[in-house]
Specification:
There is one protein chain. The protein has a single domain, classed as 434 Repressor (Amino-terminal Domain), CATH 1.10.260. The longest helix has 13 residues, at 78-90. The radius of gyration is 13 Å and the shape is globular. 67% of the residues lie in helices and 0% in strands. Helix 2 (23-29) crosses helix 3. The chain contains six helices and no strands. By secondary structure, it is an all-alpha fold.
Amino acid sequence: MTEPQASVYWLDRVKKDGGFASDYELAKALQMSRAGVSQIRSGKIGIGIKTAIRIGWLIQVDPLLVISSVMFHQETKGDAKDFWYSVYKRCPSKKL
């Protein structure tokens, strides 16, 4: 299993796998604003839990894999990062 991926990876993956031509189409599929996608891409905000679940559903991976991956990158404290890394490692790597 690879290391946990940051938010931009998941946006790019769902955009590619979903065949979305633009971030506007991606935002619509994720039920968020285009500005929200832009803020995630720029690092101003992270992917929220509901969006992470939607990403998992759209690309047919365990939503907990997406959640634990982005939370790992959003945490700053070692014990919290360790927790999310352990959750990530326990997620099945196969598609649903």
